[in-house]
Specification:
This protein is of the alpha/beta class. The protein has helices at residues 15-27, 40-47, 72-80, 99-107, 120-154, and strands spanning 7-11, 33-37, 60-63, 90-94, 112-115. The protein has one domain: Rossmann fold. It is built from 5 helices and 5 strands. α1 (15-27) packs across α5 and α2 runs parallel beside α3 (72-80).
Length: 155
């Protein structure tokens, strides 16, 4: 099997928050390419995989909840309803400190929930955790997603 190019999808509409996150991920030496979309509809379109060469499936999604067009919770719920996307882990990074948002995201299978603004030390810790997660688990996640998609195409 050919080596898998790991992709992290970042769904963030705030350019300042996006810049800080990208800097932290670069500082943590993230070994993945980053794909960025700015709203919930773009996230769903990207994850639909209509053009696999241009939109490779990510092995991790960093998702804001408060997005234009379609909320992060709606994107997460949509992802969990798709067999080929269920395995992809999602980390929420949001301004919402509402307990109901956090609980709903975790019920829908989010792996982690972080409230913005995140100070630089916490943001860097998050970026290091993301980099470690990718190094340890991304290959298995991508292989599992590929298997799921292959099984779907055979049925």
């Amino acid at each position: 099997m050919a080596p898998i190019d790991h992709v992290v999808l970042i769904v963030e509409d705030d350019p300042d928050a996006l810049l800080l996150l990208q800097r932290a991920l670069a500082k943590a030496r993230l070994k993945a390419s980053m794909k960025i979309v700015m709203d919930g509809d773009q996230a769903v379109e990207y994850l639909s995989g209509k053009d696999p060469a241009a939109t490779p499936l990510p092995c991790l999604v960093l998702l804001n909840l408060k997005l234009p067009k379609r909320s992060g919770l709606e994107v997460l719920e949509w992802m969990r309803s798709r067999p080929g996307l269920r395995r992809i882990p999602v980390i929420i990074i949001s301004t919402s400190g509402e307990e109901q948002d956090r609980l709903r995201a975790l019920q829908l299978g989010a792996r982690d929930y972080h409230i913005k603004p995140i100070d630089s030390k916490r943001l860097y810790r998050l970026a290091r955790r993301v980099a470690t997660y990718l190094r340890l688990f991304c290959g298995r996640i991508c292989e599992g997603v590929e298997r799921d998609l292959k099984d779907l195409s055979l049925s």
